[in-house]
Specification:
about 170 residues, alpha/beta, Diaminopimelate Epimerase, Chain A, domain 1, 8 helices, TPM domain-containing protein, TPM_dom
């Protein structure tokens, strides 16, 4: 459980859909979708990008960490439900500027957790600098490189099992 601090509570309670939309306007969401589509030609994984402005009040006051929410979203979006257990969720909790990557068991067994963590920290640094589109696309590319190395593209293109369009929660 994460200890709530007054600044964290205020960030979450003050986060609006409008603020999320300013940082991730339709053009940025389209660029993220295209980056995912392009990346999936290079590896055998399935990437899902989800972003959430803030936690619900109940989750916030319970001290829910971003990682726990990411695991919940992984399940809700059925990222685990791919034929080859090759789904990867990139989850952004904007109020905390926290990025979490959750990989299904087929990929998790092949990629060192420190490699996922490095991709998360790269995205978080860009977000702290206000470079939301560049951070998201850079993170997708970092995940794609890991997938290409550990889960190469099959000879025949596989069907797209997860939406390429970012999911805004």
């Amino acid at each position: 459980m994460v200890m709530n601090s007054l600044p964290r509570i205020l960030r979450h309670l003050g986060m609006s859909g409008r603020q999320l939309g300013r940082r991730f306007p339709p053009t940025t969401l389209a660029a993220i979708e295209q980056a995912i589509r392009d990346s999936e030609r290079l590896h055998g994984g399935q990437i899902c990008f989800a972003l959430e402005g803030a936690l619900s009040a109940s989750a916030l006051f319970a001290g829910e960490p971003a990682r726990e929410r990411a695991l919940e979203v992984f399940s809700l979006l059925r990222v685990w439900d791919t034929e080859h257990n090759n789904g990867v969720l990139i989850y952004l909790l904007l109020a905390d500027r926290d990025v979490e990557i959750v990989a299904d068991r087929g990929i998790h067994a092949r990629v060192d957790p420190q490699e996922w963590e490095a991709a998360c920290r790269e995205m978080e640094a860009a977000f702290r600098d206000g470079r939301f589109e560049a951070g998201a696309i850079g993170g997708i590319q970092a995940v794609a490189r890991l997938l290409a190395r550990h889960f190469p593209a099959p000879a025949a293109p596989s069907r797209n099992e997860l939406p390429d369009r970012p999911v805004v929660l």
